[in-house]
């Protein structure tokens, strides 16, 4: 029995002093008494756009709404087909359905767990209007192929970079490749708020104007409505927090990468363990450190008994979710996504994780496989 309890995720004061800075930012925003939109939201939008190297950011209520607003802005609607990876978080697919479009699922690459342009290409029909590559677990998708495919077939490329803020492909930040892209500031994301938050990113002024209207009841000017929008504004207090945390995003990601490197070195060649693989030209910011083993359930139980918490992303692939039986897929439709769902385990990894905590995880995994070989 290991004596060190290891949470799957916990907020620590990393880099040192960040917690106080966040508290001060929050207090400042509170005292400014601007609670909806206003300066803090505009400042954050400008800074985030610059960080992502995209023209404009439109802050919205959460990552799901960001996807809906991006799809709406891109003109995706009834009857349109949108290609999405079969192993994504459900929000990506729900957003497609919400705008009236049809999600067309596609197999991820077995090694990177990301969708590739080559696989997406096999699903293109005359009704295909968009592709949503998801930078899963924090690894950038290989974007060159997607850009070419989108151009050839006149498709809208929409990135879901909820798990990958700060990742890049060939030196260019994710979020800047899509005609329009969506991200989430859910608290545990690499750039997390203290509640819900999300953003749409685009360099197309027309799409940006639409998104800006749509998130705020469809009005460009108060009480003058051009379109039927919704209420999904980035909360002003959250924007103040996000501004502060954005300054530290690169340092937070570097710490995640350092921790990942420790795992990658210490867990090599154990049993049937498959470690995360990063494709050439891509960076990985390890939102999730995902390993695969056929003994996943036994390993998870064993680690839990040692006081080590883990998670599974995701236990049921989209096409086997009860909510999506109507899509008509069945078991066997996406063997890679199904295998990932059956074998994936996410290890604890968070900025501020101690050496002792990581050592406890590594030692326990070694012990488990020594006993189960
Ligand atoms: C978290 C996440 C979302 C949704 O974000 P919320 O802010 O929780 O709505 C969408 N897509 C992916 C890939 C995510 O990980």
Automatic annotation (TrEMBL):
Keyword Lyase: no
Positions annotated as active site in the UniProt record: 189 (proton acceptor)
GO biological process assignments: polysaccharide biosynthetic process
N6-(pyridoxal phosphate)lysine carried by residues: 189
Official protein name in the record: dTDP-4-amino-4,6-dideoxygalactose transaminase
Protein family according to the UniProt entry: Belongs to the DegT/DnrJ/EryC1 family.
Record keywords, A-Z: Pyridoxal phosphate
Transmembrane segments: none
A Gene Ontology molecular function term of the record: transaminase activity
